[in-house]
Amino acid sequence: MVCDGCAQAIGRKLKDLEGVVSQNVTYKNSMGVVTYDKEKLDGENIRKLIGDAGY
Question: How far apart are CA 46 and CA 38, in angstroms?
Fold first, then answer.
């Protein structure tokens, strides 16, 4: 991430991913916290979504 816009873009993509319960991505801390339903999603799906988005 290089700016707040990047963090917001990642957050929007996560919000649209089925199984994500909540997300909080911040540029200031260069991190994101994602709560998700393990029956619908796993960490690899989340990493792939972020990587495919160019981050």
Answer: 11
Blockwise average pLDDT, block size 10, the chain, 55 residues:
88 95 93 95 94 90
4-52 domain in CATH 3.30.70.100?
yes
pTM for the structure as a whole: 0.82
| Distance (Å, whole) CA 51 – CA 45 | 10
| CA pair distance 52, 37, nearest whole angstrom | 21
* Residue keyed to tokens 């994500």: 20
The dihedral formed by the CA atoms of 27, 28, 31 and 37, expressed in degrees to the nearest 10:
-70
